[in-house]
Amino acid sequence: MRVLLTGHRGYLGSVMAPCLLAAGHDVVGLDSGLFAGCILGPDSAEVPSIHADIRDVTASHLVGFDAVIHLAALSNDPLGSLAPEITFDINHHASLHLARLAKDAGVQRFLYASTCSVYGSAGEDLVTESAPLRPLTPYAESKVRVEEDVTAIADSGFSPVFLRNATAFGFSPCLRADIVLNNLVGVAMLTGTVRVLSDGTPWRPLVHARDIAAAFCAALVAPVDAIHCRAYNVGTEDNNVTVAQIAEAAATAVPNSTVDVTGETGPDPRSYRVDFSAIRTGFEGYTPQWTVVAGAVELYENYVRWGLTEELFTTRFTRLAHLRTLQTAGLLDASLRFQRVGAGRD
């Protein structure tokens, strides 16, 4: 299958591109290069690529593809809250524009990377795909809008599927240090203490980046009636864990580190546990492989192997800090567009 993978140079894309190639697909990437330099270890995302901002995609970019996997987004809650209008411009409006172009170009499958954070604060019960959507951030709200608007343009020749990923973790060449497990393992390694500012009680569903990639590979080849306008939670119930448990996993992976739950920010309103049974039924043979503890060990081993430092951890691999660095250097304008042609390629 010929697949266009947007955001192929990002955290998930750098893991997904090799998985798609290994499955025998013909992959072309599309990326603006915002995080092209955020690499720790070898870069495994080398596929033919289109250098373009997702907001500038044209009809010519979509011709000849059987499927689009759409990962490209501003996936950072602090950034979304700081500049919600940019988040909606990129995550919502550009995503809908991409879907319309894909449909017009004859693309049959549109795989959209949504998020379990669309459920917001859901309490103690396991939430299924039919649960009410209560997004609490501009990032989550943008995902809800895309699901609704892309569903409205689906027809017999254009089948979207919405993969609601749990919070990702795990090592990727294009590392992110601002997602919870990745962050806490790094903090434990660099300081010896895992500090939790909340009271540690909120629930989080977690899923490894490679298990997300496997879900998208499964959706590519699933029967049309299994994907058409369907939403699937991506993860496993075994990885529904509290923030305190995530901290304990990080401390277990990093020798001689301890956990300090300060509670200074109080309880976090984002708390939810997720039911993942639908994806196991819908995609035959799909079973996530990674536990939180195993992911913490993998992260620590790669942080040591590739020489993670505090400076890299807090700047290059923290999305908001990295974007501010590019803006300070005059490479990005206020709308997060590169100021000169070719910027962000390397």
Topology:
Blueprint: E1 2-6, H1 13-22, E2 26-31, E3 49-51, E4 67-70, H2 77-82, H3 84-104, E5 109-115, E6 126-127, H4 138-153, E7 159-165, E8 167-169, H5 180-191, E9 193-198, E10 203-208, H6 209-221, H7 224-227, E11 230-234, E12 240-242, H8 243-253, E13 258-266, E14 273-274, H9 277-282, H10 292-305, H11 310-316, H12 319-328
Parallel strand pairs: 1-2, 1-4, 2-3, 4-5, 5-7, 6-14, 7-11, 8-10, 9-13
Antiparallel strand pairs: 10-12
Helix pairs in contact: 1-6, 3-4, 5-8, 5-10, 8-10
Overview of this protein structure:
This protein is α/β, with parallel strands linked by helices and 346 residues long. Helices cover 38% and strands 20% of the residues. It has 12 helices and 14 strands. Strand 1, helix 1 and strand 2 form a beta-alpha-beta unit. Helix 3 packs parallel to helix 4, helix 5 crosses helix 8 and helix 8 crosses helix 10. The two termini are 28 Å apart. The model has no long low-confidence stretch (mean pLDDT 93).
Task: Note the total helix count.
Answer: 12
Our estimate of the beta-strand percent is: 15-25%
Q: How are the strands of the largest sheet arranged? A: 3-2-1-4-5-7-11
SSE string, helices as H and strands as E? EHEEEHHEEHEEHEEHHEEHEEHHHH
- Cα shape: globular
Structural class: alpha/beta
Radius of gyration: 19 Å
Helix amount, in percent? 25-40%
Mean model confidence by pLDDT: 93
For the biggest sheet, the summary is: 7 strands, parallel
Separation, N- and C-terminal Cα atoms = 28 Å
Number of strands: 14
Uncertain parts: none
